[in-house]
């Protein structure tokens, strides 16, 4: 009998943490405020405008999530992060989730949760025109300096694609851009929407042909959050899928045209069988 009592008490103690584990969705609803991690130096996705305000595709998206979830787009706090601080901020609970033009990779998915991608992008390489570089293969030489984000996937990819180039590791998209503009680096690469913005604003930059390399493949930018919270993940994942394919596609189209100056990928159509 004593054994059974002890066993029951042990099982009850084990159950307490599981019962006490509250979804971040419930935490946000009780707090009545959403806390989102963002960049401030990645135009046109998230950057500070001439008025000193955070604006961009991802900023609009975060505000719309706050409006849907809490009834007011202003019930939102942004936490500005650097690339190497993104995942620690989510894992520690400093932010509810991150919207930081973050690419899904298998090694990242081991320690952080991702929703369905809200943006299909790709890396674009930009070089100074006076370097007279047209193809990526021309850069595989120590005399050229490549500015790249100080994150393991970018570093590993560079070692595979350009093993002989000199690397300059920096912490933000704007730092990459400034390194090339000021002559510290010859070339940099960044997600296509950001590269398009910089190329459009700077006639002294030119695109480098990356055909046949990893840089020419599609990247998937996603919301990231602390793993293990299915309820919170499901809400955010559902929201993204509705943006891309469902009831919020019109809003998604508006953001695409406003910030990326083009139409989004087409919405999936339902085959009714009518001919």
Number of strands: 14
Query: Globular, elongated, flat, extended or rod-shaped: what is the shape?
Result: globular
Strand content: 15-25%
What is the total domain count? 2
CATH superfamily of the largest domain: Periplasmic binding protein-like II
Protein model, in words:
The N and C termini lie far apart (73 Å). The chain is 39% helix and 21% strand. The mean pLDDT is 90. The radius of gyration is 22 Å and the shape is globular. Helix 6 (152-161) links the parallel strand 9 (145-149) and strand 10. The strands form 4 sheets. Strands 8, 9, 10, 11, 12 and 13 form a 6-stranded mixed β-sheet that branches. A 3-stranded parallel β-sheet has the order 5-1-6. With 275 residues, the protein is of the alpha/beta class. Helix 9 packs across helix 10. It has 10 helices and 14 strands. The protein has 2 domains: 22-118 and 222-260, Periplasmic binding protein-like II (D-Maltodextrin-Binding Protein, domain 2, 3-Layer(aba) Sandwich); 122-218, D-Maltodextrin-Binding Protein, domain 2 (3-Layer(aba) Sandwich).
Summarize the structure.
The protein is of the alpha/beta class and about 280 residues long.
Write the layout of secondary structure elements.
Blueprint: H1 2-20, H2 24-31, E1 34-38, E2 41-42, E3 46-48, E4 54-55, H3 57-70, E5 76-80, H4 86-91, E6 97-99, H5 106-109, E7 113-114, E8 119-128, E9 145-149, H6 152-161, E10 166-170, H7 173-181, E11 187-191, H8 192-201, E12 205-208, E13 218-221, E14 224-225, H9 230-245, H10 249-260
Parallel strand pairs: 1-5, 1-6, 9-10, 9-11
Antiparallel strand pairs: 2-3, 3-4, 7-14, 8-11, 8-12, 8-13
């Amino acid at each position: 009998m004593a054994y059974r009592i002890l066993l029951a008490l042990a099982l009850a103690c084990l159950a307490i943490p599981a019962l006490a584990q509250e979804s971040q969705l419930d935490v946000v609803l009780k707090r009545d405020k959403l806390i989102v991690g963002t960049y401030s130096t990645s135009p046109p996705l998230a950057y500070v405008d001439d008025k000193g305000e955070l604006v961009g595709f991802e900023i609009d998206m975060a505000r719309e999530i706050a409006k849907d979830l809490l009834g007011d787009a202003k019930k939102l706090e942004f936490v500005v992060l650097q690339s190497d601080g993104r995942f620690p901020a989510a894992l520690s609970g400093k932010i509810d989730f991150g919207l930081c033009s973050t690419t899904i990779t298998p090694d990242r998915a081991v320690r952080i949760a991702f929703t369905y991608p809200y943006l299909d992008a790709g890396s674009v390489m930009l070089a100074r025109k006076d370097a007279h570089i047209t193809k990526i293969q021309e850069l595989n030489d120590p005399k050229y300096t490549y500015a790249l984000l100080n994150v393991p996937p970018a570093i590993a990819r560079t070692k595979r694609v350009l093993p002989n180039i000199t690397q300059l590791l920096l912490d933000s998209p704007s730092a990459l851009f400034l390194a090339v503009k000021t002559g510290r680096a010859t070339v940099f690469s960044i997600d296509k929407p950001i590269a398009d913005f910089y190329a459009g604003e700077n006639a002294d930059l030119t695109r480098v042909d990356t055909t046949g390399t990893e840089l020419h493949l599609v990247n998937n930018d996603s919301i990231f959050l602390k793993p293990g919270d299915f309820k919170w993940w499901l809400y955010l994942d559902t929201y993204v899928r509705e943006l891309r394919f469902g009831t919020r596609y019109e809003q998604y189209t508006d953001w695409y045209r406003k910030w990326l100056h083009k139409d989004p990928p087409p919405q999936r159509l339902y085959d009714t069988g009518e001919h």
